[in-house]
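Narrative of activities, Objective 1.

The group set out to show that a structural description can be obtained from nothing but a protein's sequence at a throughput compatible with the screening campaign. Below is one input-output pair from the validation batch, recorded exactly as produced.
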Amino acid sequence: MTQTQIAVSLYEQDYLLWIEDIVNKLRNRDIEELDFENLIEEIESLGRSQKHELENRLGELFEHILKRTYVNMPECYRGWVESIDKQRVSIKRLLKQAPSLKPYFSQVFDEVYEDTLKIVRRSYPQCEFPHTWPFSCDIDAMLNVDFWEE
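Output recorded for this entry:
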C-alpha cells in the first residue's frame, strides 16, 4: 500500500487523525507524503464554509430586521433586536477575519433577501413586506443602522 493510499484510507477512516497527520507533515516540510487531493478539497471547503456562514447570518439579519420593522408584535421586539445585534457582531467578526468576503456580501445580498422574504411572508401572511430591500444595502449600514427607527 502506497503512502497516498494510506493517507486516503486515513482520511476516510479517521478525519481528526488525518488532520493531525497532515499538520505534522506540513510542520516537518514533508511535502512528498502529503495527501494533496484531500488537502486541496478541505482547503476549498473552508472558503465555501465562510461564504455559507455569511449567507446564513445575512439571512438571519434580514429576517429579524423585517420582523422588527413590519410585524406589529411589540412583545417580540426585544428578542428580534437581540438577534439582530448578535448577527451583526458575527458578521463583523467574519468580515474582519476574511475581508475578501466583502464583495461576496454585495454579490449575494439580493438573493439572500429574496430567500428570506419567502420565509417571513409565509410566517406572517398578514404583513406587507417590500419586494426589494427598502433600505441601504451598504455593509456599514446593514451592520449599524436600526432601520425600524428611521
